[in-house]
């Protein structure tokens, strides 16, 4: 029977070949979802820095930067700064009503239509004051700041028609979950530059429960929308807010460059399907820093398109930095790479993470048909507690957009460097499964410790080669080319 249960990444289901309208192909996913007890840790405290992004000022020459802190490793320099906005309005100026019941869809759309005209005249800012502002989807504009004041909550509409259907992404060829188009995100942007979404810990709540139910009860007609999606955009800052209950992946920058996502709290129920935290997709120079995420799917997943659609579009994700991110996801991973990685993923740095009560710490997901590559991935200073499998390379999900996938399109994986990793109370040793005919090369472990494992659990390695120094417990023979300097 048709099973739509899905863990860790959306799975295509019920895909219908348009030319053969009657042909129904069914994918079965066996989900083994063993929930663990979750302990919620306090919000991590990182070094405080001064500055006031998003706030307006009298001096027009002030530039808003993502950070002026003195952490030399901060990646927030990817955001190039924007001048203070000349025109500042409140959603209330446009007749918005923040009573949690009145729809503000037209009001947001009208406000942004009005503010758009200041794009080349000093930019604009829309403030959302304290209150509960119900709305359907709306689009942002360039040289624009959306600022959620203390106590401001934007609520996603419960009417699917307020999340209209848009074209599928070219690197996916179809909606990720259903054929054809997909629901637009609650907050959307295409072809924008210099956008800031920030505030005083205001909240954007997608109220995704209705969408998760449509998924669970198999009545979803089109792929669910994201909470925030930006396409083809450059120089973006998303900071200091709380995002809740996304219908689907929470923040999805695709075909973007210079995106900083900093000091965000992203929450969804731990069983909410495919509520990934942040998914940089076919994007470059992305910084994800100081974020706390708990959700029903990967906290962060780096992607670059799906099978032949991603291969022909060939838009890689590169220069992605994920640092000081913490959180939990009981059935998925702290950071995932893939499974959609057909445009290539390279030069990813993952550091200073704390992950607990999760299925995997870092997981690299690929398969036959994906093509593409994963190269130069550095993972260091990671602390895991009660993470079942600390490091996992997996394959074989058999999840393809349509019959057009090429079984000879084998991904290349080279250069995965793990160092200074400690995992406490894991239940399994690393599982590193490459793909037959495509050895995963230069897989290097250095100062990597897993404590609390049963003596009987061993590393599982297939089609991988690499090096291990200061690794406990004893790694698989495939990684025992020790003494090599290549690993440093
Ligand atoms: C976040 O808010 C703090 C406190 O208002 C402010 O100092 C900082 O500049 C903001 N950071 C970003 C990246 O918006
Ligand atoms: C909520 O809004 C609907 C229409 O949008 C209206 O019919 C209803 O009376 C409102 N309820 C409250 C409690 O304001
Ligand atoms: C945004 O502002 C910059 C100046 O800061 C200007 O050069 C650019 O044309 C503006 N973009 C749009 C789309 O108005
Ligand atoms: C928002 O932009 C998308 C394309 O990116 C477009 O299809 C949609 O109609 C726009 N929505 C509004 C309300 O303008
Ligand atoms: C992080 O954001 C919160 C509001 O969400 C703010 O109070 C705090 O100052 C910010 N921290 C930093 C280091 O900017
Ligand atoms: C921001 O608000 C959310 C939800 O209201 C809360 O869980 C979180 O602790 C707050 N964060 C900060 C830094 O105040
Ligand atoms: C499926 O869930 C949706 C959203 O909650 C609900 O409106 C619908 O009645 C449900 N359908 C079935 C067949 O259970
Ligand atoms: C890879 O990323 C690092 C920063 O993490 C950067 O210094 C380097 O230039 C990048 N390499 C390429 C080829 O872009
Ligand atoms: C590989 O990544 C490291 C660390 O992120 C970076 O310093 C180096 O420049 C990268 N190498 C290439 C060829 O991009
Ligand atoms: C090894 O890794 C642990 C855990 O991250 C760290 O505390 C320790 O300092 C590292 N040791 C060396 C020699 O780098
Ligand atoms: C977790 O690990 C700690 C330290 O290694 C150990 O003392 C404790 O017994 C472990 N707990 C479980 C449930 O395995």
From TrEMBL:
Stored InterPro entries: GH28_Enzymes (IPR051801), Glyco_hydro_28 (IPR000743), PbH1 (IPR006626), Pectin_lyas_fold (IPR012334), Pectin_lyase_fold/virulence (IPR011050)
Q: Which Pfam families match?
A: Glyco_hydro_28
SMART domains from the entry?
Answer: PbH1 (SM00710)
The compartments listed are: Secreted, Cell wall
- Where does the secretion signal sit in this chain? none
According to its UniProt entry, the protein's GO biological process terms are: carbohydrate metabolic process
Q: Which keywords has UniProt assigned to this entry?
A: Cell wall, Glycosidase, Hydrolase, Secreted
Q: Which Gene Ontology terms cover its molecular function?
A: polygalacturonase activity
Instruction: Identify its protein family.
Output: Belongs to the glycosyl hydrolase 28 family.
Q: What name does this protein carry?
A: Glycoside hydrolase
Q: What is the lineage of its organism?
A: Eukaryota, Viridiplantae, Streptophyta, Embryophyta, Tracheophyta
């Amino acid at each position: 029977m048709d099973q739509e249960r899905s863990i860790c990444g959306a799975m295509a289901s019920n895909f219908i070949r348009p030319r053969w309208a009657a042909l129904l192909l069914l994918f079965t996913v066996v989900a083994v979802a063993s929930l663990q007890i979750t302990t919620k840790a306090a919000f991590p405290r990182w070094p405080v820095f001064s500055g006031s992004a998003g706030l307006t000022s009298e001096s027009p020459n002030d530039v808003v930067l993502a950070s002026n802190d003195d952490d030399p490793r901060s990646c927030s320099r990817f955001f190039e700064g924007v001048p203070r906005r000349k025109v500042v309005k409140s959603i209330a100026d446009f007749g918005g009503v923040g009573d949690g019941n009145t729809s503000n869809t037209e009001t947001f759309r009208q406000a942004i239509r009005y503010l758009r005209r200041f794009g080349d005249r000093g930019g604009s800012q829309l403030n959302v004051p304290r209150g509960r502002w119900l709305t359907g989807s709306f689009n942002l504009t360039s040289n624009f700041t959306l600022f959620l004041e203390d106590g401001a909550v934007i609520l996603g509409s419960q009417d699917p028609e307020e999340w209209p259907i848009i074209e599928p992404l070219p690197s996916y060829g179809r909606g990720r979950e259903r054929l054809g188009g997909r629901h637009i995100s609650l907050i959307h942007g295409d072809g924008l530059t210099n956008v800031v979404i920030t505030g005083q810990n205001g909240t954007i709540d997608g109220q995704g429960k209705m969408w998760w139910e449509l998924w669970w009860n198999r009545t979803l007609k089109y792929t669910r929308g994201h909470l925030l999606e930006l396409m083809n955009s450059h120089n973006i800052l998303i900071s200091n807010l709380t995002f809740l209950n996304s219908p689907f992946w929470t923040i999805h920058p695709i075909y973007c460059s210079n995106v900083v996502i900093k000091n965000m709290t992203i929450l969804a129920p731990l069983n909410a399907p495919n509520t990934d935290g942040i998914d940089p997709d076919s994007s470059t120079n992305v910084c994800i820093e100081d974020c706390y995420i708990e959700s029903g799917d990967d906290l962060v997943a780096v992607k670059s398109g799906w099978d032949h659609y991603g291969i022909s579009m060939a838009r890689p994700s590169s220069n992605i930095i994920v640092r000081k991110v913490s959180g939990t996801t009981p059935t998925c991973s702290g950071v995932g790479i893939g499974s959609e990685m057909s445009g290539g993923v390279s030069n990813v740095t993952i550091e200073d993470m704390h992950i607990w009560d999760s299925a995997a710490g870092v997981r690299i997901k690929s398969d036959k048909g994906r093509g593409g590559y994963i190269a130069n991935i550095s993972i260091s200073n990671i602390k895991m507690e009660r993470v079942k499998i600390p490091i996992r390379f997996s394959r074989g999900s058999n999840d393809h957009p349509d019959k057009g996938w090429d079984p000879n399109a084998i991904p290349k994986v080279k250069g995965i460097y793990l160092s200074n990793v400690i995992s406490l109370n894991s239940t399994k040793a690393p599982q590193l499964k490459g793909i037959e005919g495509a050895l995963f090369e230069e897989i290097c472990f250095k100062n990597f410790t897993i404590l609390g494992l049963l003596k009987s659990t061993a590393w599982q390695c297939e089609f991988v080669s690499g090096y291990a120094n200061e690794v406990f417990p004893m790694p698989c023979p495939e990684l025992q080319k020790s003494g090599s300097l290549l690993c440093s």
